[in-house]
Amino acid sequence: MRRTSAAVIGTVTSAALIFAAKLGADAVETPDTGQTASGDLAPAAEAPAPASKAPASRAPGGKAPARRIGLKDGVFKGAASVNQYGPIQVTIRVAGGKITALRATHATTPATTRQVNTRAIPVLRQEALSAQSAQVDTVSGATFTSGSFRTSLQSALAAARR
Amino acid sequence: MTAPLSSYPRAAPDRQTVPDLRTPLDARGASAASDLRTVLDSRASGGPRTEFGPRDGFAPRTDDPRAGFGSRAAHGASATADPRSAWPPAGGEARETEPPAARVAGNRLLIVLLFWGMFATSVGLWVFATPPSTLSGKAEIVTGIGRVTGMIGGFLLLTQVLMMSRVSWLETWIGGHDLIRWHRWIGGWLLVSVLAHAGYTTVGYALTSRSSVVDQTVTLWTDYDDMVGAFTAAGIMVGVGALAIRGVRRRMPYELWHWLHLTTYAILILGYGHQFSAGAELSEEGFARLYWTALYALVISCLVWGRVIEPLWFNLRHRLCVMDVVPESDSMVSIYVGGRNLDRLEARAGQYFRWRFLGARGWWQSHPFSLSAAPNGTWLRLTVSAAGRYTAGLGLVRPGTRVFACGPSGTFTAQHRVRRAALLIAGGSGIAPVRALLEELPRGTVVVYRAGGPADIVFGDELRGLAQRRGIDVRYVLGSRDEPGPRRLFTPEGMREIVPDVKQRDVYLCGPPGMVRAALATLSDLRVRRRQIHLDPFEF
Ligand SMILES: Cc1cc2nc3c(=O)[nH]c(=O)nc-3n(C[C@H](O)[C@H](O)[C@H](O)COP(=O)(O)OP(=O)(O)OC[C@H]3O[C@@H](n4cnc5c(N)ncnc54)[C@H](O)[C@@H]3O)c2cc1C
Would an 8 Å CB–CB cutoff place B141 in contact with chain A? Predict the structure, then answer.
């Protein structure tokens, strides 16, 4: 191979790879890449939660009458709340004015954080679903996670009331 | 071991058969061997003329009749023909304006660019996924360093394996020797980054969870997936790194060192799991994971390709076997190897193969030996000097022995010239690839053959024949290192005396390390550019 072809091929390939790495990182929704989701937002026939880039909400077509706590129907994503172990972001689905499903994305690394999160979030999620509000108790040993969970859930609820 | 190391058994094979076996047909279909003999007999007509004649016996030219040379013709070695003498056609190369290397000069550049591009991408996976805002505290910064050194270590490990995969494009683009050099160099950085990765990550996690480093290490071992494997891999790496220290390695037999070094493949397997299960950058779907998986796939396929498929394919196609074994001097022996489809063999003069003589002593070892004649479509030849037990035993290899060869490798070829003219300096067994190269270099090439004395010279007749037929100027510099002739050779004046236009030539060096060092020093005094110099060290 000649020098010029090598220089062109080498540079273009390298630039493409680096660019792809950048795009790949940007495609991840929240600041930290070590993310996973707990909970399921897709009851019955509904499509799963849309992956929206904006931390605010997205109101779908259905306009159910507001009930007791005045929540609109649809899927609402709370702002990510970052604590020292990473971000937590709660997404809720409201149907008939009630929170019917809840999902939280959270950091999975370092592995200690993942262990804390994977233990705490199902508990928090269950509490939130039964309380139908952000008044959830702190899970012991997961103070930061619980705090961020509350904050993000509050923001999702606020979006649902708008 | 009973055989003395420094000499070969004199019981040479039946000479009668030699010319028949080794007589190739040249392009015109005539017997090149008889051609050559005619030339040798009529060489009185004179060879290449140079205005700077031999002085004080320093560097006499090949047509200088020297005692001891003539007698070697009776040895039968002169039967070795030069079927390539008509190739490249005289003047054919001269018409080209660019040096031969222009067509291959980009190969190495491409590899270097891709290496750095992929290195940057691997680091980029961490950089792009880590906004500066997340590096707010001490724990985050320490963990961050742990992660980025992990990405670097993971990437370098794959490069290390790739460079040793023996895959043919690397072996012929970079050459085994530079691959080993890079491998050694990158190996040091790999060790540093893996140790930094383990250290910083452990400390970073300990800071985050406010526990002690010891507790954190225990947690890593017990609570995390694949972490025992990762720590074991790091341990192996430290062990192998310690063995690779020159002083330690020199003291071990090559084979032992080689086999211990092969345990490094375990690092690839043991270290793999934790990269995906605990690696922040790789545990999620996305480009990072795709890229990393692709890197692994590339390296593993090159490994299988270079270590299994190519060797099997090559040996099934050519089915090499020893045709003849001919002593060249007290300590050197030539092995002629025949096989099928040798006209389709894609090897060049100056390259080497890794040879394994099946059914001979030491069949489990493979050793690198250069071709000592350009491939001619009929046979291959290697010329071995007795350096140790294994090479001393090669004189006893019997014709008919099956040969398993891997290659070709190396960039010590005429194709890599950056100038048109060349100077070749050979010492000891270094004459083997130089002898082969002569068949592919243009008229006017100068060979300086450094040897202890007339008895150590091999290929005397072949060199004379090549000098006649291809217009090559062969100079002998005989004597021990301290004698005036050899001393003068490695001075700028001495070198210029033999080759006044040395700066306009590519210089090919092959011989004992001391000679190569002396030559390099002289060439650097003469301001010969480094890229004009080609080395073929016989040691990895
Ligand atoms: C690219 C290359 C081309 C070579 N071409 C020739 C040639 O044309 N003619 C020739 O006489 N010699 C050649 N050699 C040298 C030859 O390979 C060694 O002399 C031979 O392997 C020594 O083996 P031994 O067991 O007899 O000697 P030992 O005394 O066991 O070893 C001497 C040294 O040779 C090296 N060595 C030993 N075994 C191997 C091996 N399996 N692979 C690589 N290196 C090894 C080690 O550095 C060792 O220190 C070449 C070497 C290389 C790297």
Answer: no
